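so ive been stuck on this for like two days lol. basically i have the seq below and the ligand is magnesium ion, smiles is in there too. i just want the complex predicted, nothing fancy, no docking runs or whatever. if the output looks off dont worry ill sanity check it later, just need somthing to start from for the group meeting slides
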Amino acid sequence: MKFFNREKEINEILSVIESEPQLIYFIYGPINSGKTALINEIIKNRLDKSRYEVIYINLRGRFIEDYKSFIKVLFSVKKESFREKIKNFFKGLFFFSSKGFK
Ligand SMILES: Nc1ncnc2c1ncn2[C@@H]1O[C@H](COP(=O)(O)OP(=O)(O)O)[C@@H](O)[C@H]1O
Ligand SMILES: [Mg+2]
């Protein structure tokens, strides 16, 4: 379905994005009211992607108790386990050798 009838909200959000960043903004509303569709429309068709980098952080399933844990979730970097590091190291080697022997 074609996206419709959200010009006012789109312009409000764009003006928030374009102003000096100082707060964290939330979009809230009833389920199925179009929050995700609205933000996706802005990211896909309305945002100047040469000026903004969009980062998606899924907060579902994260336990956020207070401001500190919220900040921690936002800025935590998923650490690679030792097993993953070894796996990726060999993956890299294999890629290198398969390229080298062609
Ligand atoms: N402005 C719109 N134009 C067309 N379809 C829309 C619009 N807003 C929402 N929808 C559709 O309505 C459904 C629910 O919207 P969604 O963004 O998932 O809601 P929410 O994130 O608020 O729960 C989706 O199928 C979405 O594609
Ligand atoms: Mg949604």
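The mean pLDDT is 84. The helical segments are 7-18, 35-46, 67-75, 82-100.
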